């Protein structure tokens, strides 16, 4: 990382000498990191990017890292301070994917003794004493204090606990992955959809691993997914309507209907941001859910009524109860599609109409205080159709704004009145 100036060059020289003595191939890569912000994590990320490139280029099977027992104990404490759950408290994992840590069972003293027997010099990383890094403060200040005041064997105790917790995590993880296959409704490059009812049946600790796995499938790793993220997601699972939260690395968790969507596509949160819109005036235009709607009350039907399509409907205004509301779908929604006499679940209607799951929450639903009026642009409710006895009519015309992004950029926030009463 070239963070230690001359010390880095000395480290490199010693490693070269050792590799030559042992006839071990050596690959050296230099990484430039600018700025002090989050330096430790950025250095780690850059380092692993190099490791993975070398792994792929040379077709190696594993990346072996030399962390020892003290590193393990320090990691347990570090993760505890961060509020980690079982996974973090298990510390450094002996094996995870292509990453292996074969030296976790050895203390630094044991490793130094082995090197002395092999006549190989021990070299301490100069950055290990840098107090800018939290890990170093744990290593150089907290661990010695705990050993002196509380338990001289604190390092071994923490390492033993980590080993037990790792085995426990492996058991729960295996169980969670079997359940994940059952509750995952859809999985693609940008979206993971989980069944909320099935998710809620899992124990809280298992839910953490289910949700973390959905995050992993999008982000590539479980890095930066903590217990606090679980709490945030659980806060929206039972909430009314569509909700969303932002997770690290540009990933969103969106509660839609009875589904939980993980996505790294920002457009997927637009429905969760939209609140119901109540139509206040009798003659108005509004913009809501990527549509512009025009309303007009009539006493006489237009002559060209037979030419109207799904984006323009006329209904009996006197059959509307209270105010009209534009909203997205809700649990248990049902209506009587135009031309039918019986109720149909909105979910079944969408299935019959082959509306993709991703799009169902974007469909504007017109409703009064008792019932659905119109599923735009698919079907009017049969209960508000006009007949020969009708004397007052409501014309609603919809226009999609999705293809008019340049003009839409200058409009007001979706869900507000765009024009005053005409």
What does this structure look like?
By secondary structure, the protein is of the alpha+beta class. It is built from 13 helices and 19 strands. A hairpin with a 2-residue loop joins β7 and β8 (about 260-265). Residues about 405-420 have low confidence and may be disordered.
Summarize the structure.
With 422 residues, the protein is an alpha+beta fold. It has helices at residues 6-22, 39-57, 69-81, 86-89, 108-117, 134-149, 154-183, 196-201, 204-219, 227-237, 270-273, 346-352, 405-408, and strands at 63-64, 95-96, 99-100, 184-187, 191-195, 243-247, 251-256, 259-263, 277-279, 285-288, 291-298, 312-316, 324-327, 334-335, 344-345, 365-367, 372-375, 379-380, 393-400.
Low-confidence stretches: 403-422
* Main sheet characteristics: 5 strands, antiparallel
Head-to-tail CA distance between termini? 66 Å
Task: Give the strand line-up of the largest sheet.
Answer: 4-5-8-7-6
Structural class: alpha+beta
Brief descriptors of the model:
19 strands; Uridine Diphospho-n-acetylenolpyruvylglucosamine Reductase, domain 3; five-stranded antiparallel β-sheet; alpha+beta; 3 domains
Draw up the topology in text.
Elements: H1 6-22, H2 39-57, E1 63-64, H3 69-81, H4 86-89, E2 95-96, E3 99-100, H5 108-117, H6 134-149, H7 154-183, E4 184-187, E5 191-195, H8 196-201, H9 204-219, H10 227-237, E6 243-247, E7 251-256, E8 259-263, H11 270-273, E9 277-279, E10 285-288, E11 291-298, E12 312-316, E13 324-327, E14 334-335, E15 344-345, H12 346-352, E16 365-367, E17 372-375, E18 379-380, E19 393-400, H13 405-408
Parallel strand pairs: 1-3
Antiparallel strand pairs: 2-3, 4-5, 5-8, 6-7, 7-8, 9-13, 10-11, 11-19, 12-19, 13-16, 14-15, 16-17, 17-18
């Amino acid at each position: 990382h070239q963070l230690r100036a001359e010390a880095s060059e000395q480290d490199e020289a010693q490693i070269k000498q050792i590799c030559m003595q042992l006839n071990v191939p050596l690959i050296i890569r230099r990484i430039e990191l600018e700025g002090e912000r989050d330096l430790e994590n950025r250095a780690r990320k850059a380092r692993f990017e190099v490791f993975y490139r070398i792994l792929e280029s040379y077709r190696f099977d594993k990346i072996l890292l030399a962390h020892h027992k003290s590193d393990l104990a320090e990691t347990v404490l570090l993760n505890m301070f961060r509020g980690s759950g079982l996974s973090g408290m298990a510390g450094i994992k002996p094996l995870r994917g292509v990453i292996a840590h074969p030296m976790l069972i050895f203390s630094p003293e044991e490793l130094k003794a082995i090197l002395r027997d092999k006549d190989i010099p021990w070299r301490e990383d100069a950055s290990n004493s840098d107090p800018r890094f939290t890990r170093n403060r744990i290593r150089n200040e907290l661990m010695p204090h705990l050993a002196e005041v509380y338990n001289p064997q604190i390092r071994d105790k923490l390492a033993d606990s980590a080993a037990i917790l790792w085995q426990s995590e492996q058991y729960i993880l295996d169980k969670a992955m079997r359940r994940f296959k059952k509750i995952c409704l859809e999985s693609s490059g940008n979206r993971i959809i989980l069944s909320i009812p099935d998710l809620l049946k899992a124990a809280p600790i298992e839910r953490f691993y289910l949700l973390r796995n959905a995050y992993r499938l999008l982000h590539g790793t479980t890095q930066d997914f903590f217990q606090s993220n679980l709490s945030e997601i659980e806060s929206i699972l039972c909430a009314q309507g569509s909700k969303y939260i932002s997770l690290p690395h540009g990933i969103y968790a969106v509660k839609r209907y009875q589904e939980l969507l993980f996505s790294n596509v920002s457009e997927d949160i637009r429905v969760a941001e939209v609140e119901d819109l109540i139509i206040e005036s009798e003659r108005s235009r509004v913009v809501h859910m990527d549509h512009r709607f025009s309303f007009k009350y009539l006493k006489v039907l237009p002559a060209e009524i037979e030419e109207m399509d799904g984006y323009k409907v006329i209904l009996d205004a006197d059959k509307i109860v209270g105010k009209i509301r534009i909203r997205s779908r809700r649990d248990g929604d049902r209506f009587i599609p135009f031309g039918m006499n019986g109720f149909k679940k909105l979910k079944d209607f969408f299935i019959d109409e082959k509306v993709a799951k991703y799009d169902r929450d974007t469909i504007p639903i017109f409703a009064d205080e008792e019932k659905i009026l119109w599923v735009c642009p698919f079907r009017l409710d049969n209960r508000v159709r006009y007949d020969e006895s009708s004397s007052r009519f409501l014309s609603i015309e919809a226009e999609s704004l999705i293809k008019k992004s340049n003009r839409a950029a200058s409009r007001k926030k979706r869900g507000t009145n765009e024009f005053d009463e005409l």
